[in-house]
Amino acid sequence: MKPNRRTTGAAVAALALLAGCGTGGTSDAPKAGAGAGATNASCTSPTKVKLQLQWVAQSQFAGYYAARDQGLWAKECLDVTIVEGGVDIVPQTQLATGAADFAIAWVPKALASREQGAKITDIGQIYQRSGTLQVSWKDSALTTAAALKGKKVGNWGFGNEFELFAGLQKAGIDPKSGVTLVQQQFDMSALLGRQIDAAQAMVYNEYAQVLEQKNPATGQLYQPSDLSVIDWNTEGTAMLQDAIWADTDKLKSDKTYQDTAVKLLKGAMAGWVSCRDSFQPCVDTVLKNGPTLGASHQAWQLAKVNGLIWPSPQGIGLVDKAAWDQTVSVATGQKVVKAAPDADAYSNDYAQKALAELKTAGVDVTGASYAPPAVTLKEGGK
Predict the structure, then answer these.
(1) Where would you tag: which of 98, 245, 249, 275 has the fewest CB atoms within 10 A of its CB?
(2) Positive or negative CA dihedral for 158, 164, 170, 174?
């Protein structure tokens, strides 16, 4: 099946106007951390910006690489350095200490950092839905949180378990005694070996890892029909994840930083629109910046990430209050934070300004007609 192209022509034309170049040309894309040359003729001194990611280059962050490599940030007179993350890097801490100008972080983890003193604000809620799942074999019939009672349930810990715990409690199960919790590695080996009944997985990553393995009974790759999935969005305990965070104090006092925040959001939003409507070129951009993961895995990841972003009924990057309040409710209920955050925890002001400029340029910022492309995974994600 071909990727959805119903809005491609108009969106690409609009993005081309924004960038001063086409959206598909990535053959000369700079490597991660490099700045793209300015395409804005009136820009003589681009503002240098460091954007801190949570992890290494992969399709989870595709829109940011697209924004840089396609000149969408350069058009805004920004020279953005994308800083990859790692196991010992906490993005919101990098932002709070001044090591980065902006950062990508999950909302509950950032709220915990705020409560500990980090002065940071969510200015761009890119992911509108949670990507966290609990995955089991179909023959286990574990389709709801309530069904996990008495089972061996894997989770990663490190702040990734809150949706699971909240889901169990909502179903009347004490996470400490109603299930057997198993510390899970960041892979699916324990599920594949049937050492646990249900494994934690991101829909765009670990879930695919199972589907990239051969089923010994058939000699073919596992299929979604072989698995059962518990989706915390359906269970009502989902928490907001990837967002763009900014320095709270600078947002209040520094006009240049305020303007930069709008420009950064505008370019990032346009990058994600490009990844929605020009799917394969965006996958190619990710592969050039982060060739560690295979092509089919990166394509799957981008398709699933797009599904977490689109549609964005209010416009990409805006915080939906109901989703925010649910995140805060789960966070306080799970003692991620002691109390609900103050009014500085998020602001839609900067995203609204960026959206207004994009809409004036004819860019579809809601993706109401988005339909995900079909991606065929290959063994090992190659």
Answers:
(1) 98
(2) negative
52 φ, ψ to 5°? -90, 125
Specify the pLDDT at position 43: 94
Distance of CA 329 to the CA centre of its chain: 21
> 114 vs 107, 121, 122, 249, 336, CA distance in Å?
10, 9, 11, 13, 11
In eight-state DSSP terms, residue 30 is P
- Which residues, given as ranges, of the chain have pLDDT below 70? 1-39
Cβ-defined contacts of 298-301 (< 8 Å, 24+): 298/58, 298/59, 298/381, 299/59, 299/375, 300/204, 300/208, 300/375, 300/377, 300/381, 301/58, 301/59, 301/60, 301/204, 301/205, 301/208
Query: Token pair 């010994």 is at which residue?
Result: 216
For residues 46 and 139, give the distance between their C-alpha atoms in angstroms, rounded to a whole number.
57
Q: Dig out the tokens for 344 from the structure.
A: 């500085």
CB 146 within 8 A of CB 171: yes
* β-bridge partners, 246: 102, 121
SS3 306: helix
Q: Which among 7, 19, 93, 23 is positioned nearest to 54, based on CA atoms?
A: 93
Is 328 within 8 Å of 340 (Cβ atoms)? yes
The pLDDT, as a whole number, for residue 370 is: 97
pTM: 0.90
Interhelix angle for 62-69 vs 279-289, to 10°?
90
Query: Quick one: which of 191, 230, 227, 221 has its CA closest to 376?
Result: 221
Provide the pLDDT for residue 39. Answer: 62
Rounded Cα–Cα distance for residues 86 and 96 (Å): 17
Q: Which residues make Cβ contacts (< 8 Å) with residue 100, sequence separation at least 6?
A: 50, 51, 52, 83, 91, 94
CB 209 within 8 A of CB 380: no
Question: Among 83, 82, 132, which residue's Cα sits nearest to residue 107?
Answer: 132
